[in-house]
Amino acid sequence: MRRLALTIGACAILAGCAMNDQDMGPPDAPAGSARADLRDANGRAMGEATAVQDGETIRVRIEGISMPPGGHGAHVHTVGSCAAPSFESAGPHWNPSGAMHGKDNPVGMHKGDLPNIAIGTDGRATLEYAIDYARIEGGGKPMLDADGAALVIHAAPDDYRTDPSGNSGARIACGVFVAG
Question: Which fold does the domain 33-179 belong to in CATH?
Fold first, then answer.
């Protein structure tokens, strides 16, 4: 009987400790966010993108407005620059691991490869995507490094395999990510 009481007591103490650890949250939970205003080559607003750190995942959300209907490639690019009209200043896709392009590429994919955004006939769409094992700031090879990052929308859908850009055509909208 005494052994049963000790076992029950030990379990209660351990359960209490576990509950306290959960209440405190993860010990090294990274915080951070970034936002980008998307604009076309004429400076017209085309939406916004947000990135929020959630543990070891970056949660990206794109809200498109006034965009051409249809599918469009969407990518995080390595440089925080959106010089019109071509937005080539945004550089290539964010690719800290040196992978190939696209989720369908057997040796892919870049961290900056996002799913296509499907714009409705009203010019609007929302895309939400999780980039696993990535950081917005801090740590090794973050999205916002010394020269920043940008979100780029392309004219055509991404084919998810052609390196380096998914055959997604011209860059039609761009926004520089700003921390905070």
Answer: Immunoglobulin-like (2.60.40)
C-alpha of 126 from chain center: 14
Residue pair 51/59 in contact by the 8 Å Cβ criterion: yes
What is the predicted pLDDT for the residue at 31?
Answer: 57
Q: Which residues pair with 117 in a beta bridge?
A: 72
Structural domain spans, the chain: 33-179
Ranges of residues in the chain whose predicted pLDDT is under 70: 1-31
Kindly give, in sequence order, each residue whose CB lies less than 8 Å from that of residue 158, ignoring residues fewer than 6 positions away: 73, 74, 75, 102, 113, 115, 116, 165, 166, 167, 168
Strands in 65-155 per DSSP E: 70-72, 74-77, 117-119, 125-132, 150-154
